[in-house]
User: Fold this.
Amino acid sequence: MAFRLDGRRALVMGGSRGIGLGIARAFAEAGAAVAVTGRKQEDAGDAARSIGKSAFGFALDTADLNQIDSVHAEAARALGGGIDILVLNSGGPPPGPAMGVSSENWQQYWTMMFVGLVRMADLALPGMIERRFGRVMSVVSSSVIQPIPNLGMSNAIRPAIVGWGKTVSNEVARFGVTVNAIAPGRIQTERVDRIDQGAAAKTGKTHDQIRTEAMGRIPVGRYGTIEEFGAAALFLASNEASFTTGSIIRVDGGQISSI
Assistant:
């Protein structure tokens, strides 16, 4: 079965690189018109051009709520008047323990990783409800199921978007709108490279040693690809996923040990 998105309009936040770019490409290849955001207009524009003619790029800092409003309006207009599929995806905080984080840093990353994403969803959901079709998915982390050592801020903040999504999924289900989360494990991206490099610096091991050890904890025996992650998002965006809502889809190679 090939999942198609012909005629659908998607906004992929954080779609200029990494996992977000993998999702945006999967949507475009399935026939959707796609808007992507990135921290810099240059990056978002380059990503859009690499995706194809029906792609648009917008600069967005998810910690700036005024930008959320303006980008929603601009993206909806570029896509032809609405957003059918919304991917909530933001950058993550730096590695480190949960103790000793300043209040300013907690506020900064809470706004960036939660408040800004929820605001974008609140802007897009009324149109989805009116059209009786919508797909909202949050890119979270395997840490929402099993906390990851030395990612204290991420472990604390990302579960909030899952709780929000589960609650909203029940509120909008009768209108044909689904709300889900996708939890990546070790997907080969620049962020994962930075995390591995940080672990190498902290332990005195080489980058290759850290990668080899990490792969040894993944039953599949390797890191995932952004294309594999995009395929999971494509299913959730499709008509065929209409009975899947309020769920967390794991794309982790079996790494999460809990049931």
